[in-house]
Write a structure and sequence with these properties.
The complex is a heterodimer. In chain A, 25% of the residues are buried. By secondary structure, chain A is mostly helical. Helices cover 70% and strands 2% of the residues of chain A. Chain A has a two-stranded antiparallel sheet with strand order 1-2. Chain A is flat, with a radius of gyration of 25 Å. Chain A has a domain of 148 residues: MetI-like fold (Orthogonal Bundle). Chain B is an alpha+beta fold. Chain B has 9 helices and 21 strands. The chains are: A mainly alpha, B alpha+beta.
Amino acid sequence: MTKVQNNRAWLLILPMLVLVAFSAIIPLMTVVNYSVQDVFDANTRFFTGTEWFETMLNDSALQAALLRQFAFSMTILAIEVPLGIGIALLMPKRGWQASAVLILITLPLLIPWNVVGSIWQIFTRGDIGLMGWGIRELGYSYNITRNPVDAWATIILMDVWHWTPLIALLCYSGLRAIPEAYYQAARIDRASRWAVFRYIQLPKLTNVLVIGVLLRFMHSFMIYAEPFVLTGGGPGSSTTFLSQSLTTMAIGQQDLGPSAAFSLIYFLIILLVSWVFYTAIMNMQKDDATGGHRHDA
Amino acid sequence: MAEIMLKALAHTYVSNPQSPADYAIREMTHVWHQGGAYALLGPSGCGKSTLLNIISGLLQPSDGDVVFDSRIVNELPPEERNIAQVFQFPVIYDTMTVFDNLAFPLRNIRTPEAKVRERVAEVADILDLVPLLRRKAKNLTADEKQKVSMGRGLVRDDVSAILFDEPLTVIDPQLKWKLRRKLKEIHERFNITMIYVTHDQLEASTFAEKIAVMYEGQVVQFGTPRELFEKPAHTFVGFFIGSPGMNFLEMTVTESGLSFGKLPIPVDPRLLELAHRSGSNNVKLGIRPEFVEVHEEVGSNTLSVKVEDIQDLGTYSILSFRLNGVSLKARLGEEHAIRGEYAHVRFPEASTHLYIDECRVEVGND
């Protein structure tokens, strides 16, 4: 068989190329376009090079928002991942109880973001909100519009309530996929409950956890509607996260150049963190250098 | 070290069993002697894995007792039974190295680390795992993984029996014989009772000294591979062991004797007596294809049969022929050729067996 040389076959990928162009490349290039120019009106514009990027990186308000953003994402990951695993381990394995618990657990995931914000906004009010009223009755002067600590704790609690079910569901499916023989072998090997978790369940959950952590990181790093509705970014700017800063700048102040530069930085940070995280996890699963695959085979 | 006895054991997955068919294991009493190499052979769904899980303690029998050295262990969980089990699919601890995998059962019972190292080295040596000890178990091939899971059973020196549940299913054919030989070697070296579940008669007969053939939740015969071949105690054994399986001729019992259709079959009068006494009309004559004598010429007591097909299998061939409308088979040696449409067959009496209600009957001193 001789190989047929026919470059017209490249045309076959054209539809895909067009689709990707409209869904990703063109919007992204528009942003790039704005980020390197200062646009006054349809006819007046100046090329600014990396100026907007430098301004953005040196902006102390944005730096603070970025730090806040990282603090938020890491905090909710640190709570939601172990909690999700724990819930998945406790969920019933079969029967109607399993279905009932699955539905109950999934409910928060079905609520739209700004509705979650509204629910919690009302829930935490000191006068008519059950939680706000309850905490005040216990003697603590809880107030998310005055006290930054209260605001933070509430936003974190809200996110944990909204998104831990996702981790729990992923882990539950991962746990169900472990063949019974593993548990049987562990019993015969006299493994403790902890050893079963550490050496069978956790390793088998690695893949779903990678997906779960990546999703949760990206999601939480882009969080907007929930804190916006609940606290409006306050008190002060204590709960103003990156996307809210960006919206204020782009929509509120119409600063297209700086916000475009900021968007790109924002995007690259998410990309970078996700990549580092993914690579680190994947490397953990490889053989250590002392026994590479080829060496002793 | 233990002798494993199953005493009036039965098991059902149904909460309210009505008939014997509801039982995965029908009532049986069986002894596995200390140090024996046994196989549990049977088709899928005959209850052999259930039986194995009852012995290891993963399942509680619904009736009867499991006795280890005259101690009833029904209530004991697997971890207290000093038993190791190797599963169909290799079970290894992914994130651990091969060394840690082998050390795991010892570390779980807080064995001193020096002793752990000594035992692991010994077992790794037997299983040819020494070069792999520092590798992550996850990256091994299927046969290496299966050796690791076997090794975990061997490291504990309190293990009195190892149970294998079709352990070679996922192993490449060319590696199977190697692993099987390894198993035999281990058996000879340690004085461990081994019970090996399989549906492959070749695997069973190369591994085991004695084979228990299971059929519909019952052990229908327990014997050496040779006994299973020469004297199948049950028609199922005749059919399941051997390739092709045993020929069966359905007999009609009359006052004067047995006949196959219109063909009278000469039979020991004492056997005829048994057939009469049983009152059953399920009487069969069985003969293995290997024992059917085939001649080209008419001889004494031969029957002429029509040749249907001859299948050449290299070193031997299988002759299919028709007798009274029933298709039967005979195995022919390499040099033995049958030309022509008809052959003359004889069923030597020493190799024919009589089955009443599917079970072999015999009379003394034959």
